[in-house]
Structure prediction request, 216 residues.
Amino acid sequence: MTQPGAPRRAAARRTPVPPDRGARSAAQGSADGDPAAQGSAEGDLAAQGSAGGGSAAQGLADGDLAAQGSADHLAAQGSADGGLAAQGLADGDPAGWDGAAADAAAPRVHTRRVGAYTVVELHGEIDIAGVGSVGPGLDAATAGDEPAVIVDLRPTAFFDCSGLGLLCRAHRRVMERGGRMRLVCDNALILRTLRAGRLLDVLRPVATLDEALREE
Prediction:
């Protein structure tokens, strides 16, 4: 006698597997364990890593080239700056300019003999600080009997009332010794100072040394 539950269990064993379940099993098998498929995947990753490493190496190479370019640029810039510095020295050192300006401003006397006259050139700035440097030279030229002196102010860089006192002293010494004194000046500012000190009519300045020599 057949039991009522037996055919039902046999029918359950013969139930077919759904197609989508088979596909999922195959896919799971590939993911979990097909060595060939896993090797292919790992090979692809290795190739990707190689490509990434190549890109990184290329980046390092490009970085080295950029660094080299920067170094070359800095070296070229340094050379250019050195050239500019050398050019600056060739064109004129500002310190040298300052020294030349200081020499031009320094008060000093240059004395020479021209014909019957002693020509006294006053250089630099003739002010209260410079009178002491040029006074002795002018005193020496106006010493002796009947001195003939020409005072040349053309090399003078600056002249103030201290210079007026210097000229008044020299003129007085010459007159006391029976000599003669001429003045050469072509500087408008100095002539204005002489006019303010009322010495234009006394000293009667001329513009050139030749004019002073012709007045004998």
Q: What stands out?
A: The chain is about 65% helix and 15% strand. Residues 35-91 form the longest helix (57 residues).
